[in-house]
Amino acid sequence: MSIPEFDPTSLSVDERLDLIDRLWLSIATDAERGDAHASAALDLNRPLEPEVLAELKRRVEELKRNPSSGIRWEDLRAEFRRKYG
């Protein structure tokens, strides 16, 4: 399969970020369907970088201190479905 040629800089930053999201989600969907190449590309078993892990821990602690700062999973999922279909 050949990828159509286009200049990514012809897209706005938001459009490019949306394209990245769509591509990443399509690979994740393929991985969920059992595509070994997609699963390997995602490398879901890779350890988190220390900075990422520290940020996640910080956010958990913030949520424990201030539960109203978070949003419910159902609301987040609904927002994603509106945005990504």
Descriptive report:
With 85 residues, the protein is mainly α. The chain folds into two domains: 9-45; 47-85, no CATH class. Helices cover 65% and strands 0% of the residues. It has helices spanning 13-32, 36-42, 50-65, 73-84.
Rg computed from alpha carbons, rounded to a whole number of angstroms: 17 Å
Low-confidence stretches: none
Q: Secondary-structure element sequence?
A: HHHH
**Can you tell me the number of structural domains?**
2
Largest sheet: none
Classify the secondary structure makeup into a structural class.
mainly alpha
Helix amount, in percent? Answer: 55-70%
Distance between the ends? 26 Å
Number of strand elements: 0
The total of helices stands at 4
Overall 3D geometry? extended
Strand content: under 5%
Mean pLDDT: 90
